[in-house]
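Record type: ASSEMBLY
Status: queued
Input:
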Amino acid sequence: MSLRLRILLLQVVGAVVAGAMGIVALVVLDRTRDHLRHVEAANAQLLATTEVAVRTRAYAQRVAELMLLGREGEAELPALRQEVENALDRLREVTLDEMAWLSGPRHEKRNERELGQIEELRSGFAEMDRRARRLFAPTGPTWADDPALRVAVADGLLHGDVIAALARAVSGEQAEVAEIREEEDALTARVTVALVVGLLVLVPLGVLAAHMLARSVSRPVAALAAAAAAVDRGELDHRVAWRARDELGMLARRFDAMAAELANQRARSLSAHAALEGQVALRTAELADANGRLRDLDRFRVHFLAEIGHELRTPVTVLRGEAEVTLRHGPGAPEAAYRGTLQRIAAGAADLGRLVDDLLFLARTEADQVRYHTRRVRLAPIAAEAVHEGEMLARHKGISIDMALPMGEREVEADPQRLKQALLILLDNAVKYSPPGQAVSVECRWKGDMAEFVVRDKGAGIPAEDLPRVFDRFYRGRGAERNADDGSGLGLSIARSIVEKHGGTIEIESAPERGTAVCIRLPLLPRARAAGATARKESA
Amino acid sequence: MPTRVLLVEDDARVAAFVRRGLESEGYAVDTAADGPAGLAMARAAAYPLILLDRRLPTLDGLEVCRALREEGCGAMVLMLTARGGLQDRVEGLRGGADDYLAIDTALIVLTMRRSGTADAERWSRSAVASWRGCACG
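Status: finished
Output:
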């Protein structure tokens, strides 16, 4: 039930109570007025009746006096008679008045009786008057001489039917008044009972209704206030949970929905905050990482520059030393001395140029600026060419290169020049670190979908602790005598960078005094159909 | 009889021109390509002057110098390097070298002192000091 309806109901109950009280009061007032009028009417009737009685008695008394005392004063009789008639008329009037506003069978019956009584009085008086007239008529009986008769007539006159009727009328009116009193008392009693009962029933009912209304309002309001306080404290999971279907129930549901939305928003905000923090942490980590990489790169650059400076210093020193030593001879020096010096300087400058080339190559590789013109090429011819050039390097040390190249036409995706450069670096190293007269072996073979190019020497080998550094820039094996052929110390670095650009790997195995093997692995391209047919023909 | 000098230098190119320079100034030069060989030669013959490359494979110049000093070698020892850093120089001197010179500077000093080089002490105290600034640069 809605709050509005409940308040309306309470008001209706109050109005009903007040209305009932008012109606009771009105009824009581009306009845009291009726009774009062009735009593007045009865009193007026009683008065009129008494008047009739008094006038009648006065008439009768005069008649009796006339009879007993002689005819003097006979002339007053008509006036007295008229007064009786007037009193009777007034009584009739009063009675008719009462009849005009009293209704109901009981009253009609009584009024009829009263009217009857009036007629009875009137006829009684008329009889009395007739007798009196007859007495005083000139032809009337002679009662004056007979005293006994006079007394008898007078008694008859005085105590006749008229008197009796009068007495009856008076007592009737008295009875009526008494009856009205009784009725009034009964009504008062009934009204009192009705009022008490009504009050006893209606007042508790009103109090109960008011209490229920107050209770039905105060409980949800208290729950709402508690919920608002809880939400204010930050307990967003607090709910009013008031399921009534009235306005307060709706308010409670709205409040709960609002609290749920608030909780939702807070959860979203918290998760967004956490995500943001996570992202900040991630970005910070990335920044720290990038910073670390930059720092490493910076260190690497400083180190690289220092290395380059160091590596360039010696060749420059050699050039300068050669020149200075020769210049000390003065103008008289033999031409051969200058020539020799200039030749050595030219050779040293050429070395220096190669070193600078290698450094440039490496620097550009690091910066990813070296262009590779890769295409589908057969590996075997490239390997053969590299070996051929390696043999020229090996010749002056009396070193031979044993070559085992595979039959077949397997191809790789490669830049032939660069790939040959990488293979040649391995051959050059092998020749450099081999004792004179020893053979270097080269093996090129297919293994699954990979090509392997292995160069083995029987040189001094590399100490185990140096193995991790052999691909570092400027690492030089200890077995090599340092001279013009010493190289830049960049060879394996360059070879590795080339091989890795081709999607391959490079590995080194070495044991001191047993030699070194370096293996390059490159991914083979799938056999072309035509190439496959050729290979089958060859193997057949 | 020319003064005998021991040159311990692993870089053949450097060894070649230093030897030529010294020979043209009248020194007799023996060369060794690494530390152990140089040490052995220094022990075998009493050289009045030894030129040691600072950086040698297996046994570097500093270690050779220390070993020689511990054995009571009284030769004049000059440390050579392509670099003339102050730290290298201090280390060299602590290791017992008489001076620490860039290669080209050393050559000039030696050639300036061509005559009377047997008196190692004398030139080391005068000329070497006068070239120190150059060596540091």
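Annotation: The longest strand of chain A covers residues 515-523.
Annotation: The longest helix of chain A spans residues 247-327.
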